[in-house]
């Protein structure tokens, strides 16, 4: 026969129930805090020191970077990474570029053949002169408009339709947009330094080159 609840047992049961709710809620709270903290990491060393808080995608990128410099020691890795001017991160199945955002000294970055769709972390890399993003899953290139030192950029084999962010790249000499979803290239007519504009295999509404001389535009052959 069940014993009747006394005034003493009710608070105990309520207390246990509240404690259980608090415990169950901790993983979600911790996850939310981790996500919030990850947004505040600015330097490569910050990302390295907080690697356990990162998403699997960001951690994969960080691990590849540590592999590149040959050490998992964050202080040493930070020093070695600061000396890098060129990074080739092609074919590593990367999707989250967040750990790269503090590498502002990089001038050449190769990210060919990955799973990249979000370019936001690259907008701080304003010293970039050469960038290869071919064979990815990119639709939005607006973060690239801040990369005004770019001379050569490869965006082929993506899903890009709007190229207007590229009109800000005043010193660019070569743009590869082959195999995308580009309809209009007239936004690029102000690029006075450009020498090669590759736009093969795109659903262009016009094959009239908006840039002089006209042979700069390389349409389908």
TrEMBL record:
Keywords: Leucine-rich repeat, Repeat, Signal
SMART domains cross-referenced by the UniProt entry: LRR_SD22 (SM00365), LRR_TYP (SM00369)
The UniProt record lists the keyword Cell wall biogenesis/degradation: no
PROSITE patterns registered for this protein in UniProt: LRR
Signal peptide: 1-32
A Pfam family that the UniProt record links to this protein: LRR_4
PANTHER family attached to this UniProt entry: LEUCINE-RICH REPEAT AND IQ DOMAIN-CONTAINING PROTEIN 1-RELATED (PTHR46652), LEUCINE-RICH REPEAT-CONTAINING PROTEIN 9 (PTHR46652:SF3)
Protein name as it appears in the record: Leucine Rich repeat family protein
Species in which this protein is naturally found: Planktothrix rubescens CCAP 1459/22
């Amino acid at each position: 026969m069940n014993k009747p609840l006394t005034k003493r047992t009710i608070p105990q049961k309520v207390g246990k129930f509240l404690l259980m709710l608090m415990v169950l809620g901790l993983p979600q709270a911790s996850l939310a805090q981790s996500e919030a903290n990850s947004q505040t990491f600015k330097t490569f060393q910050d990302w390295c020191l907080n690697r356990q808080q990162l998403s699997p995608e960001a951690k994969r990128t960080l691990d590849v970077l540590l592999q590149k410099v040959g050490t998992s020691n964050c202080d040493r890795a930070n020093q070695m990474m600061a000396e890098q001017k060129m990074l080739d991160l092609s074919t590593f199945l990367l999707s989250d570029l967040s750990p790269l955002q503090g590498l502002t000294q990089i001038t050449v970055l190769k990210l060919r053949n990955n799973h990249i769709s979000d370019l936001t972390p690259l907008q701080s890399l304003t010293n970039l002169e050469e960038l290869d993003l071919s064979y990815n899953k990119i639709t939005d290139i607006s973060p690239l408009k801040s990369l005004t030192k770019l001379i050569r950029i490869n965006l082929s084999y993506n899903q890009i339709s709007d190229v207007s962010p590229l009109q800000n790249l005043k010193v660019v000499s070569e743009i590869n947009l082959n195999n995308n979803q580009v309809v209009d290239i007239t936004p690029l007519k102000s690029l006075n330094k450009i020498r090669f504009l590759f736009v093969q295999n795109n659903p262009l509404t016009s094959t009239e080159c908006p840039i002089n001389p006209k042979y700069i535009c390389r349409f389908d052959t």
